[in-house]
Here is the input.
Amino acid sequence: MSAGGGASAWLPSRAEQAEGWRAPGQDAGWLNPLRERFLLRLLVRKELRVRYRGSALGMLWSYVKPAVQFIVFYIALGVFLQLNRDTPAYAVYLFSGIVVVNLFGEVFGNATRSITGNQALVSKIYLPSELFPWASMIVALVHFLPQLLVLVVGALLFGWMPSFTAAIAFGLGLVILVVFTMGLGMITAALNAAFRDVENFVDLIVMVATWLSPVLYRISMVEAAIGGTIWWWLYQLNPLTIVVELFHVAFWRYTPETVQGVAADPSLASPGEPFGLWWAGMLIAVATFVVGTVLFERSKRRFAQEL
Amino acid sequence: MSPNIDSVPESAAVPTDREMVRIEHVTKQFSLRHDHSLKELAFSALQRKKLADSFLALDDVDLTVHAGETVGLIGFNGSGKSTLLKTVSGVLYPDRGRVLLRGRVAGLIEVGAGFHPDLSGRENVYLNGAILGMSREQIDAKFDEIVAFSEIEEFIDTDVKYYSSGMFLRLAFSVAVHTEPDIFLVDEILSVGDEPFQRKCLERIRELQRAGRTMIVVSHELEMLEKLCTRIVVLRKGEAIFDGEPSEAVATLRAG
Here is the structure.
């Protein structure tokens, strides 16, 4: 039953391939989503339609959820715990981190459930199973757009101006985040087909993620607390930390309020400005993606019977 | 409802020598796991209980299908017919042995599995056409024909959840028979809809046979298969026990 063992035994030999033979389910593997763009688009449209069936507010929910989240955190941490006082433009700071964690949670959670959620298709009709986590990822990006819009408008209100540095930081952050999370999502999607516990575990990780990256508090506070220990390094190497910091650079660091604040208190600047450990984040993201893809490819042949 | 046997057309298949499907020593074992949780796994490890019962769904099956042939698969429930069809379609993979194909394969397996109740008929036609391997241009070109065949023109923009089960199956079947694959897999589908529609389906299958398509058909309708197929394979407990003349095959199965 090992999917990887003798992986090529089921494939036609080169001579047979020349005669036009192929094996059922022999496809472009991880490149499928690029080859089957038409089908991918239809699957994305299906997901979007199904998500909001019978809901009056529809896509508006993509605004409502982060808005509530933002208000709650802002009041609890910004006002009650007074993070507002020491962090300039704390609202922008907070929200640029929230959108990162939300996109992470959405991609990770959706991808994890993508195989089990499409049970009817996976177990009855052949189609390249890579399409399911990819469709979930695209759906998550569609939901990310309104949040991004709100973030940009918010930042503009604080006097933020788009810049070249901001665009690079945002681009790097988004790529690292999506590649990294897709890698994780493919691992958990494959595991979730065998053990449904995985999806609960993923929910747990998503919940923890908000607190283990500098979304609500500033990274300098973490350094003050655990600086110099191995934990500090692990904290910094967390791809989410790297992405959140990149988003801070993109939307918060260069608002006039923050620039003034940094002049008065240099500890507000994050280490290694402007792009910090982006290369480490990219490396980890690509490595995770490769592992996820390999694992997914090796287990996808078992999906139909595991469901 | 089973089709009226007199309305079943004679086979129009024209077998040739070109091999289209090769099933070589295919063995498939299923393990029946009862639950999908780590708790279950941990407990059975502790109790040294066997986690799963396994059974052999296919046992060293060999079968070659040539272009233009219509091959029937018959056998009692649990004999491995559908499993065999699924290994050809690519849903299941053999544990040992291999399956090779030439050309595009599409199945009338589980008609309607790709349909989503919250999408309109039109959207479902596109989604399922794409799932069954059609390009956008192909679906655009065939769209009117598909709808006309299903006879639900007025409801094509209604959500599928409001369809009657007959309408639903007609549309699903219609998409599937218009995908024009080289190899056609048909599983227990000829019991769709009312009698006029069944006759239409059979007529369509005959048309496909005349066009030289290769077909593998699974059904319990033995008389119908006998007329439709050029060859029938009898499966029993995952083994192919007979392969040849349709009438002899039916007799073999009936003899037990």
The mean pLDDT of chain B is 83. The beta strands of chain B are 19-33, 52-66, 70-74, 96-102, 105-108, 183-187, 214-218, 231-236, 239-244. Chain B is about 35% helix and 25% strand.
